[in-house]
Queue: 3 jobs
Job 1
Amino acid sequence: MTAPRFFPQRITARIEELIQEAQRFDRLPAAQTMALRLERVLGVMDDRTGLDAGLGRPVVIVLLGGTGVGKSELFNALLNKPGLSPTSSTIRPKTTCAHVAVAPADKQHLTFLDEADVVTTDHLLSGTALIDAPDVDSTESVHLERTRRLVERADIVVYVGSPDKRANFSVQEEVRRWAARKRWFFVLNKLDQIPERDRETVCADFMGRVRELGFDVDQDGFFAVSAVAAQSATQTAADGLNERLERLRAVLFAYRAREQVQALRTEDVFNQVRHALSGSVRQDLDRLHRSLSAHEQELDGRVREVFLKALSTPQSQDTLRRIIREQAWRVAPSRVGGFLALPVWVRGRLAFSGLAYHLARMSTGGPSLTRMLRAGWHAAKAAWQGILPMRTILQGFSAEEERRLAEIAQDARRTLQDLGLDRLDGAKPSAFDPPTSTPEAEQALWATRLLNQSLNVLRTQGVLPRKSEHSDQDQRTREIFQERLEQAVLSSAGLLTAQRLGLAHTLVGNLLPFLVFGHASVRLVSGWLAGDWLPFDFYLTAVAVFLISLVPGYLLVSVSLTRFGNLPAPSQLVQALDAPGETEPLRRVRLDVEGLLDRVRDLEDALRVSTEVLQQELDPSRFGAAIRG
Amino acid sequence: MSKSVFSSSIQQQLNLVLECVPRVHRALGREDAVLRGVPGWSELVGRPGRIIVHEGRICLVCVLFGPSGAGKSTIFRLLTGIPVPAGETRRPMTFNCAAAVPETLRDVLDLDELFPSYRMHPLMELDVLSDRQRSATDLFFQFYQDQIPEPVAESAWLILVDVPDFNTVEQANRTRAEAMLGRAETVIFTVYPEAYKDAAVMEQLRAAAGRAGHLVYLITKLSASNEAEAARTIWEDVLHHVRDAPDFQTPRGDGLRIGEFLEQANVYYAPRDISPSMEDIRPLNPDAPDFWSLIKGRDAVEVYWSNLLGVLDKGLIAADMLAREASAQCEELRRRLETSDQRMVEVSERIAGSQFPAGELVELIIAVVKESRPGWLRMITLPVSQAAGMLLSVRTLFKRFSKTERRTVLRDRRQLERRRLEEAVDVLLDEWRRDFSTEADLFTTQRCREAARRLQEHEPPPVRDDWKEALRADVRDWSQRHPWYGSLVGTLSEMLVLLGGAALVLDLAVSGGIFGAVGQIGVAGAAGAGSLGAGTVLKMFEELKLKDILEKADAKWRAQRRDELEAHLREHLAEPLFRRKWRERIRALDEADPEACLAAVETIRARWPKQRDSGGPS
């Protein structure tokens, strides 16, 4: 028989990925808790999926409760074997290690029991293992440990309470701890201690507490019994206590279809995974993410402010305007047609015309030093008129602004330190992190810093060339920004031409050249037809007149474009600066945390859907109640 | 009503402690509410200031304490006849404390004095005890007629208190129960078989036995057929646990260990009964008197003092610990201030050592030499110096109008220093953040940035001329010993000015930025480290036999500037960022005077045993 997949491989893989992801955050307690919990879940799963996929494993039912509530009595009563698990009306806690009742054939599947010291008893019903666990609230803390280990691997938990102990705080807390992860039955034992008239109230009180814990329990999941009364010879059958014990026994030892058991276990693992991802872990991560985002936005805003200031100076504005106009000329030929396109095209490349001329001169007349110098001069001029001004704007940062940027970068680093996340950032440790204990090292450090500082002073004053002045991140921010700026300039130039130049320009500008051209053509053709050769002067004049006729159109275009251009607002340009280098470390950490959160969310979504499906399959009256929502 | 007090000196010291500890606690920056949670303290505060005695009998508070469902309220009903709510139907049943006061004391006892930390209300309706909205400091009282008047000679008036349980989900109940347990001199610790070994119950048993003057262990709801046997087994199990558990080995105020005290406790038991009666409560030891007369018959004085010792001991321990903590914190803050000062000195020294106004020194030399120059030389050089002076003023005039000052940076020592100061602030802040990482909220990014910005708003302090004044005599001395060099320098000065040499000198002055790069080692060190500028200056001065003066000047300059810069940093950076807060805290702690508190505790401890021997009311 090919065993059906016990657990969706897909989800296991996801969990493993998540664990790896979470373990990377070694300074984040929340992530570490999550990783540990998930690893535990995987450990539990390995127990189950190992070998024969855990299919043969019986349903494990654990009795959980405070000391003295009669768990062992109940255990004995359910198995109908008095004295199987030792009981006492006086000594507390009596049960020190777990008692397990399991069919011999099923024993091999309960591999996890080997680690805990347990007493195993045979019973006949295969498919179900009943465990009498030690108490959870006595002075023996080792009992609590043992019980928790058992409950973790149990399929169904039976919470046993007694009238006297029904409000016990530590027991309630223990139930709360496991509530969301397990399926539950609720038993109120020792009902015989309560006078008949009070029983109803006591049961209601007990159930009220269970509901407070978040369970939707009806009479199917709740059993008010008395294990002692049922066992003793003088059975007070009139109480109906005995019948209820019978019903409990029937429910616990009911036959459960293999598919349903599978579903039960899958749901159990899902619940454990959800538990691992829920609660404070999620909140901590969320809070961290929010605070990181807030800090990052604030610092980004400050970077933008600095750039905005640099762009808002009249000098920068002027330069920007010039660049845009130049760009507009280059785009203009596509907006005007006909003869007019020619001068406009030439104007667009005017910057390079000098260079072209001198190159042509060199190619015809041979190179000479003066020509080379001239060509070089024109090349430099062309470059200066082209994209270089953009650099000028960005290089025009004053020392003040430089310092602002450096401050922002430092703030980003400090913010990470404040949040205790500075090691999370994969970047190399900052210059001040290594212990500078030796005076020599410290001196050397200072020497470099001060040297840099004084060099900076010289550079800002123009004494030294400004080159390696900015740290890498500054440089990167600038490059990014320059790229954005270029795009913005291009688009705004395109917009400018589109707005300013239209069909009218083409029509008006081409009118005169067209007339001249037409006239000349007519003369030429008629001359040819007449068979007489037009004088050379005619051609010269015609070309000259044609060129002159282009001038009005060109002027028109020029005037349209020279009118005060609508500059893109600097604030708009700065908005493009969405990932400055200064806040890089902060962003990296934020993205890491975001990635982790996304994974957690993905997994949760997947689990929620699967759990809903599973819950519909499992009948609470046979598999126990699950917590609401 | 007669009064009985402690010996006045102890009372005085105790008042001192009672007054001092809240102050210290507040100075530590904690809420007053937290102090109530300090173990041992609220008990000491909740104690009446004197021993309350009526007709020669002490008033003792006896509390019925135990886990939920042990039947505390039922016993209370039996003993006092006040029908407080009890029974099986609800858990927990009691939410507020109820005190039963003997009828005899109706008009003579001031209950507010007996329970100083409670607000007393007469118990009119019994339902109020199940009202969970009541404040924790409300205490309801009723007078009772003793149900079973005993022939035993009573030595005390018993004020019996019924308290809520401590182990249900109602956390508020727990604090109420524990608070009343702290007030009680006698404790009836009530348990039932299912719960006696709960971790929480054992913990409370330890707390009760650590303080109570008298403790009775009552096991209720025994359902086995042989109740006495069952009770014995349970008690032996408890004792077994008590002997092994390390918690129970700590000494009580009267010197007994908690475990030993518990072994002396009387044990009573009662069967599970729907309508119990007093006769059902039987002693485990058959010779012991019956339950009620045991409680009433105890030697009240002994019980009272034993309990008072315990309470006082615990309270004093708490006071002692608080005072010590305050002293330690004060010490720690002082140490931190020192560390931060140290850092500032280091940084200032580096800045000061990284620059040297050689130009000013040369100007000083020139000025001194000029003064001591012979008159005829002065006459000869007068026209030259006049011309130089004119030229200089013309130059400054030009400079004022020319827009761009050429390379002014090289001359502006202040600007250079400012930049270095900015750099230094970042270094300092990083160092402080590392040094005082426990005070993370004082050194958050925002605060640091804000502090740095505020510092920038203040100009660096001006340089005082003290260091130059101190050198004047040396220079004069030098010019007399080397008149030739002196006159050379003096004469050259005008020429230098004419040739633009003054600028050269000034250039050298601010090139400190480069030769001072090595930090605090000064000019000589910089020259040794191979700095070109420093080397040149040093050589020049050496040739003029001025090296000593130069080195002295350097040292003086550095010392003076360091102090100035440090003061600047302290005032404008450290003070608003953290120093002010810390100094306030230190002042608050000093004012709270933990030392006096410690001394008072010591005094009480030293005198206490004598007081105890003399025995109670005096």
Job 2
Amino acid sequence: MTPKRTRVPRAARLALREMRGRVAHRQRYRLVSQGWQYVGAMAIIGFAAWHSGTNLVYLVFSAMVAAFVGHGFIVGISLMGLDVRRGLPHHAVAETPVSIGVTLTNRRWFLPSYGVRLTDFLANAKPVGAAFFFRVDTKSSSETHYTMTFPLRGVYKLDRLEVASRFPFGMVERYFLVSQPQELVVFPQIVEVTEWLSRLQSYQGDLAAHQKGTGLDLFGIRSYNEGEHARRIHWKSTARTQRLMVMEFDREEQPKTTIILRNLVTADLRNDPDVVRDFEIAIVAAASLATQICKSNKEVSLLTSQGIIEAGSGSEHLNRILHALARLELVTTAKRWPSDAIDRKSIVEVRFRDWQPGEGSLADVELDARDLEIRSGKMLRRPGLVEAPPPNPTSSKRRAA
Amino acid sequence: MRFAYVQRLLLYTTALYGPLALLTTGEYSTLVMLLFMLVMAGSFFTQRRHIVMPDWLANVATMAVFIGMAALARSNLFDAVAYFFLFLQVIKLYAMRSHSDVHWVYTITLFLMIGTSALTTSLTFGVVFLGYLALMVFSLTMLTIQGNHEETLKRQQRFNRDAFNTFPSLALATAGADTPKRSRWVREPVRRLPTFADGNLRTSLVVFLQALTVGLLVLTMWLFLVIPRLSTQSVIQPMQRPTTDTESTSAFSSDIKFGELTKISLDPRVALYVRPLDEKDSDQVRLRGVALTRFTGDSWSRGGANISYDRLPFAPFHRPMPETKQHRYLMIQQPELDTPYLFGETFPQSIRTDRGLRFLFDPQNNTVRIGPHLPHEFHYTVESRGEDLDQRVDPSTLPRAGRFDRDETERPANMQRWLEQLRSTMGREDEGQNYRRRDQTWEIRDGYRKMCLEISDTLDRDRLRTLANEWTRDASTPFEQAHAIERTFRTTFGYTLTPEARGNIIEDFLYNKKRGHCEYFATSMALMVRTIGLPSRVVNGFVSSEWNDIAKAFVVRQSDAHSWVEIYFDGYGWMTFDPTPADGVARRTEMGRIQKWAGRLSDALRVRWYRYMIDYSFADQAGIIRSVLTTAFSIHEILNRVQVREPGQPWSFSSMGRAGSTVGVAVGILGAVLLMVGIALVWRRKGTKKVKKRNAASLVKFHTELMKKLNRLGLRLKSGETSREFSQRVVEKIPDLAALPSVIETYYALRFHGREPHAEEWRMIDELKVQMGTLKPRTLRQQNR
């Protein structure tokens, strides 16, 4: 006989949950500069009232104290029952702005939250983003995002979110911290490598004519999915079946390209700033090459001292390569590559250091990353985001006023 | 209206409150203050056109104003400071660039309000302060939201910059190690604060701020009541001794020229508010101010009476006579009267005040005045024994007063009771520093008696005596003689405020004109009774019959100033005689009904303002605590009674007296609050926040309008371009419309898949509508530029 399970009353469960939430969202106060000034003025006026015994000065003093106390009360309430959630994109690209979404949920039933500011922190307590919520209604959520540009590729560990408010009078800031550890993979910067690509194409011959003959053969017909382009609709089948049908095309067999990036260095060079810098450039070069090749619907594979990514094409494959490049580090010991890993016909080796004795190039085309010029202006950018010079402080002040 | 516009509007309105507050003091020229307000308002329009005073000019102007005001400070420091702040406010408004300047404007306005609060006690200031407080709540809230929003944007830019400074990008690294780190700014699509065109937002925020204002006012009043009124002045002032007996000249001073009283008799301003602490038992109140003994032909003076000093509470008016009427307690509020003298109903017995004021007491004339610093307004309680002129009795028929003090057993019962009451409230008569008994003030000294019998050399004494004898031919006792003179004046003389007597004005009045105002009558009678051997003096004070039902107080105006006579009878003391004909006493001001009602309301407000705001003191706080404790004990007693009552015995709160009723009301309020909380909880549990179902067809309509609007803005749909593609193109040109693609997707979902938008999508559509409303071709051109 199984023992009867004790049922905890709903009210008790709710209370427990609330208590846990409060402990997790332990709120703290912070007196901002305006608050210090206000307290100073309040002290002076309080002394003046006490010294003079004038009731109207007492009245002004009372109003000031009331505003201070009332502010503390309201700012405390406005952060009660707030939940925050961060929505990270699948990945980001270095030097390219990325939007990170944040959602604030107000669980209260009696007062909307106004003027809530949210700050996102990395695991090393460095702030990366800030977002502002004008109003979050009761029993509802509000979404916004902040835009961040990561300078370097890698894995960024986002940890805490600080939710703060100075509403209504801005004297005291109340805030709480929520721990939400998440990782964001930042792909290497993608730059134009036209010159290199030309060298590779001239070697491979048919790479220059990569557009000809592609996708002309019909692979099959299937049902239409929402969002697909109307040009792909096969109208005859549609008329026959009385539902939207689209065509799928076959892909031509393409030459495979293997990009080799040897991230193997001796222990003394591992922390050398010049080597590290050149290595980063090499990663950018490899990533840019892989991207360009993938965009041409060619297959590409990546070989590093830490492993291999088999040949493939398409955006998912490119993501795998860029993921690997984002996490790539300089190592002192290398894994052995399988013998069939290298397609001898089109090997590109991206080099970032001089060959050491005993080493030899396997490549058909050898590219030195140190020749690559990386300019910010050549970055691939998202629409709607433009680079602008730093604003003139005077004009920004004018706008603020 | 944009958020920033509303905030700016509120800021400039707040700034106007500085000169407006100073205007309420009456110390500054209305024209100058209005000019300041006009100049300040002008800065609103210059700011709108982005005309900002250069920094150097602002600095030079500030220095110039400082130097100018430093010169003025030699003559009047307070004025110099006030004007300096006003000029500074103007400069700040015209040179406003940052949030720091905005805070300066608020700070300066606050200091002007504080300065005003120290200068005035006017009710108008209360009204101005109320408006200022409400405006500040709105203004500061808007400023905080806007400031937070801007700070968030700045922070985001800083974070981006810091990231590049911490990890120099490869672009910088390849450029060489010596290249300085440059800032990298990425301008985000500016997320503006919502505009006030959003009715829902406007309503909710405004309602919230209104509720917050009311809450803050309640909290302010509560704090005002509970903050202890312990000031350093109350410690320092009693340690100072009065130095000189200087006083200003007015109708109530030690030296009064003939006709001074007539001047203020035409002034309708309120001089005093007199509130009976018990039931009102008389239609008029006679308030005694200054007593004058020496007449020089054209002026009266107080004479050489001794001045003594004492601390409160004390009983300066002590006249142990058999009482004809009960003691009355009057709370007198003295708002704007230009006199140091205190007033009390004839005859005052004691005075109490809550303030640590220094008093100058004249025991012979029975007058009290404050000195040397007269507070703007204050209140005091006077205990007096009302003397009804119609019920005066001949002192010769009464037992002699002097015996009462010598033999306690012969004191009348009411006198005994009064002394016991005095002891219980003030301690024993002969001990304690707070009470010092006055010695037999009803027996005047010989010197003083002689002064009260003097007749000026400017008058023909024999002729005056002859006239007095003629009028008192049938009188047998001094009282009857005085009464006869008083009656003759009242019945055979006329009253006029226009002085007709010329030359020797008293003789011209008595023998020729026979028309005059109260000063003529009082002076003539005082001198006439002196010729028949009765010591007399003239008393200046007020007689008012204007009762305010709302304020529950007599309103005493300057025009109620009056003069009458006090005559001394041996063994009795002083007795009041008023020879002025009845039509000259307690004249009422003729007013229309509405004017009268408005006047009463205004007076009632002023009474409460002075009583509970201006004169609120530590004693009042003690009284509140006492009453709270008393109520608490009463509740305890009631609860005990409820516990011990017999079964079946009828019981109600009202049967427990006043405290019971209080408890009943409190229980009722508590019950109502609990009921409301219960309803709120039920409502919350049900989650009855109904979402209004919206018509999906409106989205199709909006889509059509959207395309038209974009067309008007110069963004046209190309041939073969879908809405989806078009929306992407629009966003590239107008980043503010970042929500457009999502809205178009929602539109597609509705149009081609039949899926209705959910709440979040509706909200997004509404936001886009608002953003579209703010877009104008001009704005677009500016953005593109």
Job 3
Amino acid sequence: MLSLTLREAISKLKDGSLSAAELCEKCVTRAKRVQELNFIVTENFSQSQKEAVHSARLWSEYVSGRHNEWRKFGGIPFAIKDNFCTKDIRTTCASHILNNYVPPYTATVVQKLQDAGGVIIGKTNMDEFAMGAGSTDSIFGPVRNPWNYKFAQSGREHDKINDWHIAGGSSGGSAVAVATGASFGAFGSDTGGSTRNPAAYCGVVGFKSTYGRLSRHGLIPLVNSLDVPGIFAKSVDDASLLFNAVAGHDTRDSTTVTDSMDTFTLPDDISVKHLHIGIPKEYHAPGMSPCVLEAWRRAADLFDRVGAKVSEVSLPHTQFSIICYSVLCCAEVASNMSRYDGIEYGHRAKNEDSTEELYAATRHEGFNDVVRGRILAGNFFLLKRNYDNFFLKAQKVRRLIAEDFRQVFGGGVDILLTPTTLTEAPTYSWFTEVDNRTRAEEQDVFTQPINLAGVPAITVPASLSQSGLPIGLQFIGPNFHDKEVLTVAKWFEQQTNFKRLDLSHLDKS
Amino acid sequence: MAAPMKICRFRSCAIYSRIKSKPKHSHLYKHCRHNSTQENWKGVIGLEIHAQINTKSKLFSASSTAFGAPTNTQVSIFDAALPGTLPVLNGECVRAGVKTAIALNSKINKVSKFDRKHYFYADLPQGYQITQQRQPLAVGGEVEYILIDQNNRYVTKTARITQLQLEQDSGRSLHDEEGRQSLIDLNRAGIGLMEIVTEPDFENGIDCSSFVREVQLMMRQLQVCLGSFREGALRVDANISVHKPSEPLGVRSEVKNLGSLKDLRNAVDFEIKRQKSVLKNGGTVINETRTFDSESGKTIPMRDKERLQDYRFMPEPNLPPLYLYDNSTAAQSRDQNTTNIDEEIQNMPPLPRDVRNKLINDYNLSLRNVYVLVNEDKGVTFFNEVMKYSNSPPNFIANFIVNDLLGVFNANDIKIRNSPISPDILAEIVDIKESGYSTVAYCSQLVELYLKQDITERPKTVVDNNGWRQIVDTETLKPVCVKILKENPKLVKKYFKGKEDKALSSLLMKALNETQMKGHPVLMKKIFTELLEEEKQK
């Protein structure tokens, strides 16, 4: 049952061959079985099951013809990254500062999912405030990748397992929730690749739509001008279903585009032979593993073989992306984090001698080193004497990077094809050899320019490496061509026939 | 003419001793006087007016802006800066800003942007204020206002505007020093403010307060800011420095949060005096933020803002640029709630300056009368109403309202807008005075009477019934004058000695008292003169 895609599950619920209550039950059981992956930080099992039972009743009324209406996702379990506000469910951003924070409202995209009947089985683990590329810097501990993972029989023993692969980040928990079958889809956030990176490492689809299509209301920001709610799904069709369900203008987010968006369904019969696929030469980056290069080359050949035009293109400012990102990110982080003072909500230190001391102690205790480091750097960049030299320059570089994409797409290229990551999922021991900042800079190299440009991109599992770990490839399209990106990705998915992770053996024990 | 000062006040002056020895060398005195004005430090002040915008909801959230609600009851999730909340610009606040900018003759930016200004304070939940620093709603402009100068004359002056920006208000902190705790009220947090920044065009306290009063009247007329100083809806920061004319501007201090025109006036004058004395004693003024203590009348440094702040301005990433349209571009607007500048210009109500000019042009009223009438809430309306009923000349009516009526009203703490005396009654009183039907003194009594009692009779009837008519026939007045002369031989002697004016006015006072203030003063004066001159002939 858990091997079904979202699309398949919906059609089975609709014809009555599947029970929503049972489906949720199975997901909860699976979530418990794979608990040691540490992907859920706040469980919402019983509430989601309650709602699923209610949905099951509605479905049976629909199936028996007593009701004409049906809710698209009635009773289907989803997982939500812990930086989306969820009413009455703790939302921590994996940080001490929000450790006991329960929001009084729900993020728009989550609300839309719930309005369509979706149930939340839990809030997923992440890097603190989404700062990281491994889901290793969380107050709840690191997330583990289910691929090649040796599940222990008891909860204690897994501590003895020396090493495992990281899930990628910062939305690692959501990627794992989908990869393990514990949920039929999940939300993450994508600021520099935080959805696409873990999706690639965990062998699932990860979609970052055009900036401004999905509401950020209720998404606790990392970098407001780059953040996009990310969608994790088992298939491209599922990603499209979720995207269509939650996209559109939101009066509470002034950066969402006001034009009405036509909802769409992806065709099953797709032709790509009229398309021009661009291969950016700058993405032949040092450190790329041979298996990733091989997957990339094979994918390009695939398009070439069916008659699509495949050519090398240039995005000359790609090399400046990392440095540009780190300035813009730190500056906005410094600003966004200044609200965490322990006055209105969140952690408050005991030191109340003066307001200043209270702030200092609260923020010292509340944030980890990564967050504090970025705040410090960001405040430095924003100082009056540094603003022009750092922030303004970075904004100009950002414009050049966006211009690169515009020119390539303006020159006739329909879709860009790139790897999502340099390598397959690295091991935890290797990943933690160096600090968060170094890792984030090398991990986001293929994903981050896309956020700076605002364009839509999706990662689709392409193949398994020799060691049996998934490799993802990324498709990038022009602004507001979300449908085209999804369509090409779906065609690619049809050709690759990637075998999703099967954990059904865990259910037997 | 007062005798010129004998010695130069400036002992440092090189020719001081020479003047001292030859005090009558007035040309030297003149020289010193000239020098002394050169020595004088002159105040230079620029202002920042923060005016709460009169809208139902806040600048970026839907919470109410009503004054006086219970603590922390008008706080949305955005106002409390809950994580994940985003600002949504209130179009009404934009419209208010545009109206004000038009009134200030400013250049309105078709595209303006919002910035974050960072500082930590407990009543600033976001840790930054959303304002417009780099590309404000409007730039430039000027305001004409009326000023009472040092010689008590009413003069018009113009001050230049630097910019007008929209920004959020902060919350309120209440510090309990004994209990060592701070209480925060966020009702005010996020209310839309217009910040009007001026060029350093002011010289002293009265100059500043006259300007702010004009802007206040203007905003009231436009209905964009109705709140008062008392409610905290209007607050002024003053940047004050002193320098010698012809020298560059001095180092300035900033006095923050002045909550009344009187405080503004006193704070500025105190600060100028303070800086002058610092400089004269060889000290230097430091760039600092100060606060005004109205009880002691002094400015004092603000402890928590001693160091120069770096606000780390950054563009607000959650708000797209604010686009404004005019008739030629309105069609491009995709948003329904946008502001069309041309429409706002067309719908401008007459501004205080226009009202004053109209009164001067139409009725030739004095600048003082015009100033007072415009300054009073509903003053001009009241004047116009009285005009309808009265036959007296406009300036006579204006004088009566400004001097007689407002004198009594102010003494009784009554505002013209709730005048218990209707315009037609007042018109009759004015006419009684103008025609001499009764005397000045009884006209004042009439005003008092109508103010304090509910009288149904017309003023003329009241005058008749009380026998307050002015005595204007010589037959009645002459015997009174004769009697007074007889009783005051000393005054008569004084008259004959040449102190005619003094003697006459004393005699007149006595005669007026004799007639219970009903005698016609001019007539009686004439009678006295005739009688005394007759006596003199003898």
